[in-house]
Design brief:
230 residues; disordered N terminus; mainly beta
């Protein structure tokens, strides 16, 4: 069966074993926490940190609908390769996934026997879906950036305000480690005040990542839906 659906802003779930495709770099500290770091200094260090081939991490996602006072929690792993390749794998509460090779996007929902396909640039446009993790240069191009708090012991707090109106995205906070310049939390808000928090754990930068991790072969017999079309 082949269907069409409207544009969707969401992250789904799945699980794969990626260890054999990765060559992990040893964890290093770019510098000790520095006093008097300017915003430009911080952003330069972040770009330097993420200029490597890519990284993997374990994540927890906490989504809160403010008006309804509903909070959902999910968890899984993320694999990123520069530029533009991402693989979000959710293990809880359901096994589903998003895979992007920078051009195409696949969202596989095995419990529904369903694959949603579309163009990655539409889905991750202007940093939505944490798309900037696969290309840190997007931050300076697409957002006004301010240093919100430099006095917390372990992290810098950066606020990102989109240059242009972005559907379902008002602003983003990044918590950046003062020790490693890793992005440890991404907290985004929409116009209703709903919050989505992504907490990244066990971040490991990679020397190389196989491109096959960012391509999806659609299983026979699944329903195929399209998004991003009228």
């Amino acid at each position: 069966m082949r269907c069409k659906i409207g544009f969707m802003i969401c992250i789904f779930f799945f699980s794969f074993n990626t260890v054999a495709f990765l060559e992990v770099l040893p964890e290093i500290n770019i510098s000790k926490p520095a006093l008097g770091m300017t915003l430009d200094n911080i952003m330069d260090r972040v770009e330097e940190r993420y200029s490597q081939a890519g990284f993997s991490a374990v994540f927890t996602q906490v989504s809160t609908l403010k008006v309804l006072e509903i909070t959902d929690t999910a968890s899984g792993t993320i694999l990123v390769k520069r530029p533009g390749m991402m693989r979000w794998e959710y293990k809880e509460p359901e096994k589903q996934t998003i895979i992007s090779d920078g051009d195409m996007l696949w969202m596989y929902r095995p419990e529904d026997n369903q694959v949603i396909i579309g163009k990655a640039p539409d889905f991750f446009k202007d940093g939505k879906g944490a798309g900037f993790l696969s290309n840190m240069k997007i931050l300076k191009k697409k957002f006004s950036i301010t240093l919100e708090n430099n006095n917390i012991k372990d992290v810098y707090i950066i606020k990102l305000l989109p240059h242009e109106d972005v559907f379902d995205l008002s602003y983003i906070y990044l918590n950046i480690s003062k020790k490693t310049f890793n992005i440890e939390q991404i907290i985004s808000y929409n116009s209703y005040g709903d919050e989505t928090k992504i907490i990244l754990h066990n971040i490991e930068f990679q020397k190389s990542i196989d491109n096959s991790m960012f391509h999806f072969v659609i299983p026979k017999g699944v329903d195929i839906l399209e998004f991003g079309e009228p």
